[in-house]
Specification:
Elements lengths: L3 E6 L3 H12 L1 H8 L3 E7 L5 H4 L7 E3 L2 H5 L6 E4 L7 H10 L3 E4 L2 H18 L3 E2 L10 H8 L5 E7 L2 H13 L3 H11 L7 H4 L2 H15 L9 E2 L7 H9 L2 E12 L2 E12 L11 E8 L3 E8 L3 H17 L31 E11 L4 H11 L4 E6 L6 E8 L2 E2 H12 L9 E5 L4
Parallel strand pairs: 1-2, 1-4, 2-3, 4-5, 5-6, 8-10, 10-17
Antiparallel strand pairs: 7-9, 7-11, 9-10, 11-12, 13-15, 13-16, 13-17, 14-15
Helix pairs in contact: 1-13, 5-6, 6-11, 8-9, 14-15
């Protein structure tokens, strides 16, 4: 059979890794597919990358991505440019030209996936995006295929390596957030502008995709609650450890009676949980199914060849299905597109979870009673209280609460902060058992 011809848009870290893996493992891939897969046309602004990667002299190279998109010989366009534009326009044009698409672009899928998938279905082509979530971990395939017999009850993921590296360093070495962030930037884990990573936007892109796959709902990035880790202090990390917890920046999706929770925020989880021990830049996703129970997916969430592993796996899947009836392919979002549900995403005020509170208050009689009275009036019960040694007549009080509606906790914190005896804004971190 004729080889499957691939056009690469972008030859940076992931694009270069993809080209290298396709070349190095060409024989093994051909055995899996039943025909060879070759990179035939590449678009890159840096023409020297082709020589740098020792790619074949037969590969056609251009600086114009549209040359690849409009090339009639190309079967699969692999978009590895990133960002919203021109990636969106190039993907839609590829689909219009009847080409299958593979992308690692989580922002593109999270914001424009519904439009892209609808266009692909109209044209009878596939859009594969395994590498868009958790790098080399095959979590998309697991959600779409391996767990398709299950009602997904909830999922929780460490899906941003930069944030996980920062929190790991803060815990293991007692360092401050700002110092570790600076090191992460020096090591190339964080961008010069780290907002997407440390404020949870990158994780929210990925979570919105996982939530759609889990619950058969349209992609709704704009309804994902997003909170970063920049306000986490060394003291909070230490206190969490004293209580038997670790702080992780989690993306959580959960089906409850009233709708679906879809949230990214710092979370305290028991240190005995496997996912609590995922450290450094590694990623992990824990999925609870009604039939299978808990399953954990762990691996490298970024990097040239780990991400290329997912990209090439998608290329292989597309190549295998090139001649398949479009109606018999695995749906893009795991559920048939005309059967997606309109289950609401819950506002954060309606989410129920336990809380860690760190309160600075004057060290004098009656303060604790006044605070517990306010909490009790909001139907908040306390699981544990620790009072640290007072300094300068100020005491640090640590509280763990039982599960409470977030709206009630917001009201209680406002009332607590209004007390004259409370020194500053109260730190709160959500607590999940993941049991």
């Amino acid at each position: 059979m004729d080889p499957v011809k691939v056009g690469l848009l972008g030859l940076g870290t992931v694009g270069g890794g993809t080209a290298v893996v396709l070349r190095r493992n060409a024989d093994e891939i051909a055995r899996r597919v039943g025909r060879s897969i070759i990179v035939d046309h590449v678009a890159t602004l840096d023409l020297g990358r082709v020589d740098e990667l020792s790619l074949s002299e037969d590969i056609r190279v251009t600086q114009e991505a549209t040359d690849v998109v409009n090339d009639p010989d190309i079967d699969i366009v692999v978009e590895l440019i990133g960002g919203y534009s021109p990636a969106k326009e190039l993907v839609l044009q590829s689909i219009e030209n009847g080409k299958h698409v593979v992308t690692a672009n989580k922002a593109l899928i999270a914001l424009h996936g519904d439009e892209i998938f609808a266009k692909a279905q109209e044209k009878g082509v596939m859009v594969a995006f395994e590498a868009a979530v958790a790098g080399g971990i095959p979590i998309i395939k697991a959600m779409r295929e391996g767990l398709s017999a299950n009602h997904i009850e909830w999922l929780a993921g460490i899906i941003n390596g930069t944030g996980n590296f920062i929190l790991t360093e803060m815990r293991d070495k007692g360092r401050n957030f700002a110092d570790v962030l600076a090191e992460a930037q020096e090591l190339g884990y964080a961008e010069a502008d780290p907002t997407f990573d440390v404020e949870g936007i990158d994780a929210a892109h990925k979570l919105s995709i996982l939530s759609s796959l889990a619950y058969g709902i349209p992609l709704q990035f704009d309804k994902t609650y997003t909170e970063g880790i920049s306000k986490i202090t060394r003291e909070d990390v230490e206190y969490a450890s004293e209580l038997g917890y670790r702080i992780k920046h989690l993306g959580i999706a959960r089906r409850v009676e009233a709708g679906i929770e879809q949230r990214v925020h710092p979370t305290m989880i028991p240190e005995r949980r496997l996912i609590a021990n995922v450290d450094g830049v590694m990623n992990a996703v824990l999925v609870q199914g009604d039939a299978v129970g808990p399953t954990l997916y762990y691996g490298a969430g970024a990097g040239d060849e780990p991400t290329a592993s997912a990209v090439v796996a998608d290329i292989i899947d597309v190549a295998r299905a090139l001649t398949a009836d479009p109606h018999n392919r695995v749906p893009h979002l795991a559920f048939q597109s005309d059967l997606l549900a309109d289950t609401p995403i819950l506002p954060m005020s309606e989410v129920q979870t336990a809380f860690y509170l760190r309160i600075c208050a004057e060290d004098k009689p009656g303060v604790m009673a006044e605070m517990t009275q306010i909490l009790g009036a909001s139907n908040i019960s306390i699981e544990a209280i620790i009072q640290k040694e007072p300094k300068d007549d100020k005491a640090t009080i640590i509280m763990l609460t039982h599960v409470v509606r977030e709206g009630d906790m917001n009201d209680a914190i406002s009332s607590l902060e209004a007390l004259d005896v409370v020194c500053r804004k109260i730190t709160r971190i959500r607590v999940e058992s993941l049991g």
